[in-house]
Amino acid sequence: MSDPLRPRASLRTAVVWEVLKDALERRVKTAGRDVLDVLDTGGGTGNFAVPVARLGHRVTVVDPSPNALFALERRAAEAGVADRVRAVQGDAHGLFDVVERGGYDTVLCHGVLEYVDDPAEGVRNAVDALRPAGTLSLLAAGLGGAVLARALAGHFHEARHALTDPTGRWGEGDPVPRRFTAEQLTDLVSATGLRVGAVHGVRVFADLVPGVLVDTEPGAMEALLKLEAAAAEQPAFHSVATQLHVLAERD
Questions:
Q1: Burial per residue of 19-28, b for 16 or more beta-carbon CB atoms within 10 angstroms, e otherwise
Q2: Predicted local distance difference test score (pLDDT) of residue 215
Q3: What confidence category does residue 251 fall into, taking pLDDT thresholds of 50, 70 and 90?
Q4: CA 189 to CA 16: how far, in whole Å?
Q5: Residue 120 to residue 192: CA distance in whole angstroms
Q6: How many whole angstroms separate alpha carbon 64 and alpha carbon 96?
Q7: Which of 19, 130, 177, 211 could form a disulfide with 134 if both were Cys (CB 3.0 to 4.6 A apart)?
Q8: pLDDT given for residue 3 in this prediction
């Protein structure tokens, strides 16, 4: 996934970016500060961290990969926001070994729960990093999208396996260790005491539409972006989205 502000990449990230940007604007108003402290757990090379820093906020990125963090620092420097992005090596399990508990206005937990041993602990740690009235942005792989993708590719046994597997995997070769339904994610968040504000389906169509069509058909990319945005809020499409985004707030 590339920078959310680049047109081609926004097919995969536009929904999350717009929701996150609006949430940051609301947090600025409620906090009475123009600059927020944002924590991006598992933020890797800065797909969201760098654009958030471009908005003027301070971003701490925690990731276990030194290579990803090196790429993050280079990317931040190229974007002119190196002074607002801090790279820290660590993971969700030992989060408070490297960052402050209760020190952040907004926490991003994107693409983390699929890989941790205990998703509930991962969510709790993300929430415990929030200040009072803070906002959590949670993004994780959706079960239904994987089932649909395998079925459309003609891998019917794998699609059925994903549908019935407790972790949502389609087989031994599946690179994603765990997938979720919207209900599972909202339950994990609600169990921490946060109020779920919105759930969005992400990449409902983008992963299914042939790239050549989007790249060559005039106006196709813009039309698909609008379709993704319109479908994202519809609960009926949550069950077939490649990813699910949950926005929650501490009262």
A1: bbeebbeebb
A2: 76
A3: confident
A4: 17
A5: 9
A6: 14
A7: 130
A8: 44
